Amino acid sequence: MDFVKVLRSLEEILFEVLTWLVIYPRQLWKIIRQPRRVAAQVRDEVAKPLEQRYTDSISPALFLMLSVLLAHFLEILLQVALPKVAMPVTGYVFSNQKAVLAYRSAAFAIWPLAATVYLLLRQHKQVQPDNLRAPFSEQCYLVAPFAVALSLGVSLLLMFEARLQLVAIGLIVLASGWYLGVQIWWMRVRLQRGLADAVFSALLVIAVGLAINLFFGSLLPTRHAGNHHAQASLSESG
Question: What is the value of pTM for the model shown?
Fold first, then answer.
């Protein structure tokens, strides 16, 4: 009986994964082409009972994680050789596959969280789950294309092939421009303020997210270096 339950659970998991293969690319393209419509649909979904939400789409947080997984899969296909000693993050986080996925998921989730908290503070609302849910869900969708394109662009840069450098830079610039434009629109609609205010808010949120990522990233190699130094000292004493 237990074996049958396990098989049924595996069947459900397999079906879920296969549906992602169909739904994900279509949903990603929709976000790129119609971010405003997607944001409006999220607000409608959040208003529904929990069991009725996202029945024909992938939920926002899961969609972001799948986007990070896709970016990592593309990196593997490109056979990108990450430098052993490079930027602060690469020294420690990129030492294994699980760390890569965990760090990237958390890193890209920082921007949705920063935008959501900023919005609530500007609206003089309490930062609590009920108030966070809708804007954070919108932001998870909106950051997903940026996550895929930016990761792919950085991967191409790390291949150190001259013919790919312009492609990589163009992809990064395009993704950053798209994300900035979407954030400006989102802030303008959500805050009900003018263009100048929206531009300032979008740039501030992106800068805060970047600063947080750089801060936590800078802590990682210190720990790694400390462990390496301790091991070296033990070896010498032995």
Answer: 0.80
6 sits in which H/E element:
helix 2-33
Decide: helix, strand or coil at residue 167: helix
Question: What tens digit of pLDDT does each residue of 5-27 get?
Answer: 777 777 777 877 888 888 999 99
Q: Are 168 and 156 in contact (CB under 8 A)?
A: yes
- At what angle are helices 97-122 and 162-191 packed, to 10 degrees? 30
d(CA 116, CA 129): 11
CB atoms within 10 A of CB 89: 20
Residues 6+ apart with CB under 8 A from 30: 37, 38
For 134-159, b where at least 16 C-beta lie within 10 A, e where not — what string? bbbbbbbbbbbbbbbbbbbbbbbbbe
